[in-house]
Amino acid sequence: MSRSAHPAGPRHADVLPEGHYTAPADDLNALDPKVWAHTVGRDADGVVTVGGIAVTQLAEEYGTPAYILDETDFRDRARAWRTAFGTDADVFYAGKAFLSRAVVRWLDEEGLNLDVCSGGELATALSAGMPAERIAFHGNNKSPEEIERAVRAGVGRIVLDSFQEIVRVAHTAESLGKRQPVQIRVTVGVEAHTHEFIATAHEDQKFGIPLADGQAAEAVRRALQLDGLDVIGIHSHIGSQIFDMSGFEVAAHRVVGLLKDVRDEHGVELAEIDLGGGLGIAYTSDDDPREPHEIAKALSEIVTRECEGARLRTPRISVEPGRAIVGPTAFTLYEVGTVKPLEGLRTYVSVDGGMSDNIRTALYDAEYSVALASRTSDAEPMLVRVVGKHCESGDIVVKDAFLPGDLAPGDLIAVPATGAYCRSMASNYNHAMRPPVVAVRDGAARVIVRRETEEDLLRLDVG
Ligand code: LLP
Question: Among residues 290, 327, 289, 285, which one has the least CA distance to residue 421?
Fold first, then answer.
């Protein structure tokens, strides 16, 4: 990312502290369409609107903090992925990014499949009516109960992550008189260019079965011998928030290599390759994500080329985007509580949420942008750090950004691109109550996940 440590432009402090921030935008009131959901704009009074509704009205009705999700944008992005991959490939939305029953219904209506990675996500999917055969079940340590539930429900595939699991799933399926379609998740040894905690294809980590030392080939060998399993393909997920397609290229090359070895050894051509999720989105104006049709074209070319080289029938491709669909669809709406200028440093802006609704900044050093949402302002830009209300100095939502210098308590600010991994990773730290998710579409808003209440917290505390 091109970041300048000493941006030009007006500011409060004469000397800016060291940091990784871009110069303030020419117009702080402008909303870069790269980082905001499709229907976001400002009304005649300068108030940010989404789906035709002003954030001031949303704050009044639903309170703050709140995740405001643009349903039109979600559907547009889901459809764009579906269309880009066409009928020869499958798109599984990764529910870990954000899952609710409304989301499951939208996905169903838009023709996407669903990747779940826990019993809880599976329960949500099934309770909202997602057909089981369109569900993929993931996880590196699925419990016997989760496996049984998935097999009984008839999920379309279980992605096997260890030798133990090969036996467990086979045994469960056999005892239920079923043959469970499975994929085997392999680690291809790619160093994805992303934060260490969200890279998953290098060998020294918990996911998948390594290709390099022959373990993956051994896993296929064992799985093919078990009556309870129908081995449909190989799975690889290299990491998350990735912009560079070269990691996928190497992964496809190595996975196709395994398919070839399997064909040569067993005379079996596995029908599917799943290349996982991981495509990056724009959190700030500096990020340049790829469009779904470019990704689809690139992936299908890579796989086709590799298969031609190996004289293999091209397998059916599937992908598992989570962030790239839901990430840009939502913003978090906060109310400013305090504004604390620190001379020569920056101004600390405290909001009514924080690391309990967005842990990504603290956990991954994630960068976000922020805008004054309840009005516009022509005041000089000031360098701010948007922080939460938790008892932790690392409780930072937006590390370095510019907001108008007249920002005051009571203003609403919005942090875009918080649709993925914010509500789904939210916590009750300091007994905070997790914010609601409010879906907006065509001038109507509705709560799809309600705000937690003190009663919710106390109900779990059984004395
Ligand atoms: N498929 C598999 C097997 C995965 O493990 C993941 C994400 C995905 C698909 C979806 O990846 P996406 O398209 O959303 O990047 N909490 C982190 C991200 C963790 C991703 C975990 N696995 C974050 O907030 O950045």
Answer: 327
Q: Residue 201: its pLDDT value, please? A: 64
Distance CA 78, CA 102 (A): 14
Q: What pLDDT does residue 153 have? A: 98
d(CA 211, CA 255): 8
> Looking at residue 195, what is its pLDDT?
66
Nearest alpha carbon to residue 142 among 114, 115, 164: 164
Whether 276 contacts 320, CB under 8 Å? yes
Closest Cα to residue 333, out of 273, 397, 276?
397
More confident residue, 23 or 87: 87
Residue 216: name the closest of 266, 168, 160 by CA.
160
- 233 Cβ partners below 8 Å, 6+ apart? 183, 184, 270, 271, 272, 273, 274, 315, 316
pLDDT at 436 over 80: yes
Task: For 245, list phi and psi in degrees, rounded to 5.
Answer: -75, -5
198 CA distance to ligand 1 centroid (A)? 7
Alpha carbon distance 59, 68 (integer Å) = 10
Q: Which residues are catalytic?
A: 391
pLDDT at residue 7 is higher than 60? no
State whether the beta carbon of 184 lies less than 6 angstroms from ligand 1. no
Q: Is the pTM of this model over 0.90?
A: yes
Instruction: Report the percent of the chain where pLDDT is more than 70.
Output: 93
Å from CA of 278 to ligand 1 middle: 6
Cβ(372)–Cβ(411) under 8 Å? yes
Smallest CA-to-CA distance from 212 within 188, 236, 239 is with 188
Tell me, what's the pLDDT at 198?
63
Give me the residues paired with residue 416 across strands.
331
What is the set of domains in the chain, with CATH numbers?
Answer: 13-70+328-460 (2.40.37.10), 138-321 (3.20.20.10)
438 phi, psi to nearest 5 deg: -110, 120
- Cα of 348 to ligand 1 centre, how many Å? 31
Read off the pLDDT band of 253 (50, 70, 90).
Answer: very high
Which residue's alpha carbon is at the smallest distance from atom 16 of ligand 1? 421
Find out whether the beta carbon of 318 lies less than 6 Å from any atom of ligand 1: no
Atom of ligand 1 at shortest range from CA of 240: 15
What are the φ/ψ torsions at residue 235 (nearest 5 degrees)? Answer: -120, 140
- Residue 277 Cβ inside 6 Å of ligand 1? The answer reads yes
Predicted confidence at residue 400, as pLDDT, reads 95
- Across the range 442-454, mean pLDDT stands at 98
H helix intervals, 267-367: 292-309, 323-326, 360-364
